[in-house]
Amino acid sequence: MAKVTKPAYACAECGWTTSKWVGRCGECQAWGTVDVAGGGSRTARTSAAPVAAPAVPITEIGVESASATGSGIAELDRVLGGGVVPGAVMLMAGEPGVGKSTLLLEVAARWARAGRRTLYVSGEESAAQVRLRAERTGALHPELFLAAETDLGALLTHIDEVKPSLLIVDSVQTIGSADIEGVPGGVTQVREVATTVIGRAKAEGIATLLVGHVTKDGSVAGPRVLEHLVDVVLQFEGDRTSRLRLLRAVKNRFGPVDEIGCFDLVDHGIVEVPDPTGLFVTRHERPVPGTCITVTMEGRRPLLAEVQALTVDATTPSPRRTSSGLDSSRIAMVLAVLTKHARLPLGKFDVYTASVGGARLHEPAVDLAAALAMYSAISDAPLPAQLVAIGEVGLAGEVRPVSNAAARLREAARIGFTHAIVPAGTDGLDAVRGQLTIVDVPHISAAIAATRR
């Protein structure tokens, strides 16, 4: 009797193999990533084949075809490293309702206004729905072609007929192929759709933007191979309660991954925010207790942000500790340091801390501003209005230097701040000492004393 070879199954995320199909990977615990990997013990043999083009010395390869072209949106070009490269495939992911489709429709319109043909393929909305949004945002142009398709074969036909220089697919999880098993959005379908679209984009030099869904933990949905196949992975972030949207590159083969782009989601669409500092700082008519300004780094861009603190008498044996926009574990550490090394009776109070404007401040450089804001709140003494504080607070009460201190202080001086409290031993401050008064402090107690001067 002939022996029947059972198919082998492998995880698309980590490569774990099993002899039978399971819904969850036994190695990385990812759901829906196990699929047929091959035909058992059969060994594949690949022979030599003709090449498409001979190998040449790297010095003889031209780079003109890989030069970036401006998309018309400066904040997007900043994140991409200068613009859109022909044949490059970019994946943009973000939570539902954050504004991905609105941003890409604006990109398509500006690309078309420059006389370049654009094809926008929507798999989630009808053509009429996209047209209504385009009218509201002013994104109508004859060179912008629109199609509502969910079939991969029809998508390729549209590419052949329109011949665009920019292709936008919204989204890759809604496109499916009738020749592949599984439903659209599954591991096999997403891999096939991405591979086919990327192959066509590379062969014809079409810049391509793919929209991707995210899982509940914020990562890109689908197989991890999708992120490996594309050239750029963009993350579009934003709080539903705030209009500010941040675009950052998680992977970029053509530029840096530490740049961010800022956008403002308004009624008539989405607009660029080249100077977003004012969104995170509240201008008070007079100094208010419990507030302190700091400078945080978003990629390479320094942004001023305001930290607020409020202390009230505790009504329960266990005082409350509530944080919004700040790292709660670091705030708890700063509270302990203030209690131990600054002799502040914070154990008798409920302490509330928050950032302004929906900013998420999680880097250690915010520690000193949070400590001074809590000291100001409990003593009911406002800090100087033109003061910024930058530094990491250690468990021994020491104030440690942080990265990019000079760039942070230059931004504070540009906005109009005149005084700064920074950790002792911070390098590279000689060039900015003439722009504002800098006080070096080695300990949290020294920082508190500096605010009383």
Automatic annotation (TrEMBL):
<dbReference type="GO" id="GO:0008270">
    <property type="term" value="F:zinc ion binding"/>
</dbReference>
<dbReference type="InterPro" id="IPR041166">
    <property type="entry name" value="Rubredoxin_2"/>
</dbReference>
<keyword id="KW-0547">Nucleotide-binding</keyword>
<comment type="function">
    <text>Plays a role in repairing double-strand DNA breaks, probably involving stabilizing or processing branched DNA or blocked replication forks.</text>
</comment>
<keyword id="KW-0346">Stress response</keyword>
<feature type="short sequence motif" description="RadA KNRFG motif">
    <location>
        <begin position="251"/>
        <end position="255"/>
    </location>
</feature>
<feature type="region of interest" description="Lon-protease-like">
    <location>
        <begin position="350"/>
        <end position="453"/>
    </location>
</feature>
<dbReference type="InterPro" id="IPR014721">
    <property type="entry name" value="Ribsml_uS5_D2-typ_fold_subgr"/>
</dbReference>
<dbReference type="Pfam" id="PF13481">
    <property type="entry name" value="AAA_25"/>
</dbReference>
<dbReference type="InterPro" id="IPR027417">
    <property type="entry name" value="P-loop_NTPase"/>
</dbReference>
<keyword id="KW-0862">Zinc</keyword>
<keyword id="KW-0227">DNA damage</keyword>
<keyword id="KW-0238">DNA-binding</keyword>
<dbReference type="InterPro" id="IPR003593">
    <property type="entry name" value="AAA+_ATPase"/>
</dbReference>
<dbReference type="GO" id="GO:0005829">
    <property type="term" value="C:cytosol"/>
</dbReference>
<comment type="function">
    <text>DNA-dependent ATPase involved in processing of recombination intermediates, plays a role in repairing DNA breaks. Stimulates the branch migration of RecA-mediated strand transfer reactions, allowing the 3' invading strand to extend heteroduplex DNA faster. Binds ssDNA in the presence of ADP but not other nucleotides, has ATPase activity that is stimulated by ssDNA and various branched DNA structures, but inhibited by SSB. Does not have RecA's homology-searching function.</text>
</comment>
<dbReference type="GO" id="GO:0140664">
    <property type="term" value="F:ATP-dependent DNA damage sensor activity"/>
</dbReference>
<keyword id="KW-0378">Hydrolase</keyword>
<keyword id="KW-0479">Metal-binding</keyword>
<keyword id="KW-0234">DNA repair</keyword>
<feature type="binding site">
    <location>
        <begin position="94"/>
        <end position="101"/>
    </location>
    <ligand>
        <name>ATP</name>
    </ligand>
</feature>
<dbReference type="Pfam" id="PF18073">
    <property type="entry name" value="Zn_ribbon_LapB"/>
</dbReference>
<keyword id="KW-0863">Zinc-finger</keyword>
<keyword id="KW-0067">ATP-binding</keyword>
<dbReference type="InterPro" id="IPR020568">
    <property type="entry name" value="Ribosomal_Su5_D2-typ_SF"/>
</dbReference>
<protein>
    <recommendedName>
        <fullName>DNA repair protein RadA</fullName>
    </recommendedName>
</protein>
<dbReference type="GO" id="GO:0000725">
    <property type="term" value="P:recombinational repair"/>
</dbReference>
<comment type="similarity">
    <text>Belongs to the RecA family. RadA subfamily.</text>
</comment>
<feature type="domain" description="RecA family profile 1">
    <location>
        <begin position="65"/>
        <end position="214"/>
    </location>
</feature>
<dbReference type="Pfam" id="PF13541">
    <property type="entry name" value="ChlI"/>
</dbReference>
<dbReference type="GO" id="GO:0005524">
    <property type="term" value="F:ATP binding"/>
</dbReference>
<dbReference type="GO" id="GO:0003684">
    <property type="term" value="F:damaged DNA binding"/>
</dbReference>
<dbReference type="GO" id="GO:0016787">
    <property type="term" value="F:hydrolase activity"/>
</dbReference>
<dbReference type="InterPro" id="IPR004504">
    <property type="entry name" value="DNA_repair_RadA"/>
</dbReference>
<dbReference type="InterPro" id="IPR020588">
    <property type="entry name" value="RecA_ATP-bd"/>
</dbReference>
